[in-house]
Amino acid sequence: MFEVRPVADQDEYGRAIGAIGQYFNPPPGEEMLARFVRTLPHERMHAAIEDGQIVGGAGAFPFELSVPGGSLPCAGVTAVGVHPTHRRRGVLRAMMDEQLRDVHERGEPIAALFASEETIYGRFGYGIASWAGDLRVPHEWDAFAEPLEPAGATRFVTQEEARELFPPIYEAVRRQRPGMLSRSDAWWELRTVYLPESESAAPLRFVVVEVDGEPQAYGIYRTQFSFDGGSASSRLLVREAFGATPQATAAIWRYLLDVDWMAAVEVSLAPPDHPLFLLLARPRRMGYRMGDALWVRLVDVGAALAGRAYGEGEPLVFSVRDAVCPSNEGCWRLNAAGPECERTDEQPDLALDVAALGSAYLGAVSFNQLQAALRLEELREGAIERADALFAWRPLPWCTEIF
């Protein structure tokens, strides 16, 4: 038999994270682990142990996730892996069950993750809660639909300046966009603007757009230089680009698209309502490929539903099934006017699994879609229409980085 518990020291920490390193190359080194522990502390890294040997690991970053109308404590699930010698023996289930108990005890009402495989996490109550895709804008098709009036001045900044100037802009966007995680000083230093020696051949570059001397937008990107048939065929890879206003957002994208010698600008994790779809004159040339992005798990249904904002509408009663967290089982009455969500003996309007409710939580997946996919049951006529009126939200959720 095996036990699951938080790691006791840095040695166990490295071996627990090393479980996912069995599949990803290269395995984590000492330098990487020393950085990682500053954002993922020992007490948030669980290990599965058999006969004194660590055979699996599962971590959870402590941060807040922006939700419609607010922000909530969230467990950012990461570094989940089981040694190939112990597959199909219940190790993953034991770790995920123990992690969810720990998350609940810490008072974090939601958990979120990016799934390396889509079939893994639904059975633990996670539902697809946002969509994202890859964009590639060829240089010959990068004209805007409307002329852009110049907004401010753009300049390069150092890594240290980026850590000072970029966070307020990011937070301004996060207040408007569900699905974005809060970033500590350590996160900015060690993940967002980190410059590893191994990437010195194509280092990150940092630019800021200032309007009347005030930072209003920024971009983080790298270039991959190449020639093809005597002509430059380089790629500009955007890590992230944000503006505090629509004008500043357009300005930073105009800068990125206008960098010389680039055959194309490429963006990952772009949401379906990314500004480029309407900024560009020829958006179909981007060849957008959409897939699942952030998965959300409601660890405490009552606290999670009471922690976001809603549209107008009458109270709604959900019958929730949750095979992993029994405390979520039963009927919950959501009063959007509060908002308040409490247990009730009233007859339910909708019946669904907690994973389906997680999909609807950030506003990217409608209850109508869930019904069409046989993921819920409408028990009272008109309940789906009422639920969609309450939960709909714009802009769509967008998590800009895989954690």
User: Which consecutive residue ranges, at least 5 long each, have pLDDT under 50?
Assistant: none
Tell me the overall shape. globular
Q: Helical stretch count? A: 11
Derived from helix and strand composition plus strand pairing, the structural class reads alpha+beta
- Helical fraction equals 10-25%
The average pLDDT value, as a whole number, equals 96
What fraction of the residues are assigned to beta strands by DSSP?
25-35%
What can you see in these coordinates?
The chain contains 11 helices and 21 strands. It is α+β, with helices and mostly antiparallel strands and 403 residues long. A hairpin with a 2-residue loop joins strand 11 and strand 12 (231-232). The longest helix is centred in the middle third of the chain and has 16 residues, at 159-174. The mean pLDDT is 96.
Question: What's the helix and strand layout?
Answer:
Blueprint: E1 2-6, H1 10-17, H2 30-36, E2 45-50, E3 53-67, E4 70-82, H3 91-105, E5 110-114, E6 127-128, E7 131-138, E8 153-156, H4 159-174, H5 185-192, E9 205-211, E10 214-224, E11 227-228, E12 231-232, E13 234-243, H6 246-258, E14 262-270, H7 276-279, E15 289-292, E16 294-298, H8 301-306, E17 316-321, E18 330-335, E19 340-343, E20 350-353, H9 354-361, H10 367-372, E21 376-378, H11 383-391
Parallel strand pairs: 4-5, 13-14, 17-20
Antiparallel strand pairs: 1-2, 2-3, 3-4, 5-16, 6-16, 7-14, 7-15, 8-9, 9-10, 10-13, 11-12, 17-18, 18-19, 20-21
